């Protein structure tokens, strides 16, 4: 039984290139391969890029995705879907497993429709973020045979075992927690797959099964799952729960070493919600990273909650090669923080923390959001002024999005303010999901000004960092002339 795991196209349909693969798909590929399945991976972002990306047209800023371009492809009869289905079926799969995040909902559905129109016998299985947040939406699509809700690795292995054995697979699958299907004309609610523990038992994500260049596909490293902070706008609690499960540091570094050996990986992102929650673990990670790979041999990007970061951690991250540390601020408006964020942030502490990071070789980053329910222009400007005062090098803005399963979604439903936006806008970069009391045209005008400010801050801080790095380098050379001369002779 041949399996093709598929990353449906979305970014390339918006005239934007994206090379890396969805991490969950690579994890499922690793689990299925370890269980003996014949697996390949096809990334729609790469397979369709030459047919959809206009190289001569500059893509819009992230906050202004060209959703109208995507809508041109939303019709299932669009020729692009038959072309895409042909690329999939050229690999002669018996089972096609698809991952789906919310904005790619129609891409996933249209892929299944196109596949079934050509080969009705191919089995379609959908998993991923949106399948976990709203499995019923996929069960309403006849061309979707199975949905896996929750952590998919073990549920997928169990389901694929049933598919190999044959017989009445739909009925048998009702015994697998997390697997949804249709039985006797009705949807079988399979619940949510059990959380996997310990995470070290999972096989590493498998990128060598990718059709294409694996080195371009690695999105980074996950060292934990779950987040304790329960922000009202975030879907993490619905996906992982608030309990954090950590991988061992040695397992994480073994995975990294494998990527370096196979693909020459030199930089990566830590894709955790909670990487910096345990100080001792961060210090252990940094110490072991240097001991295993050497100082300055790898670089990485990480996110953190400001309350979890201190001087010791910054020093360790800097020593280990952390290039960027991003802090979640979202909004500084007291009403919004109290009602929708509920994450304690001392703004004076945040200023001191960013100033401390700026004195290191690590770039300070900050995440901001707008579009909260009834947000006023004054509240938005308050956050913009704080950003300017903060002087982080990287400032990333997004539009708050009421993802299904979040507290914000429930609030919007209860108060009748859920935006009239399709799934294609559920990607925190569309003003279609804004619930602010700011007229749309004015909101966009402010955000375009904000992006200009962000770019000016980036250039200013990068110049400052370059000057300081030059000063530090020559200061070391003057203080240690013997080492400087020895280095020149080694060259």
Question: How would you sum up this structure, described in words?
Answer:
The chain is α/β, with parallel strands linked by helices. It has two domains: 2-188, Cobalamin-binding domain (Rossmann fold, 3-Layer(aba) Sandwich), CATH 3.40.50; 220-477, tm_1862 like domain (pyruvate-formate lyase- activating enzyme, Alpha-Beta Horseshoe). The chain contains 20 helices and 14 strands. The strands form three sheets. A seven-stranded mixed sheet has the order 2-1-3-4-5-6-7. The protein has a five-stranded parallel sheet with strand order 10-11-12-13-14. Helix 6 links the parallel strand 3 (95-99) and strand 4.
Quick summary:
The protein is of the alpha/beta class and 491 residues long.
CATH superfamily of the largest domain: tm_1862 like domain
CATH fold-level assignment of the largest domain = pyruvate-formate lyase- activating enzyme
Radius of gyration, Cα only, in angstroms?
A: 24 Å
| Secondary structure tally: strands | 14
Query: Which regions contain 5 or more consecutive residues with pLDDT less than 50?
Result: 487-491
Mean pLDDT reading: 90
CATH class of the largest domain: Alpha Beta
Number of domains: 2
Structural class: alpha/beta
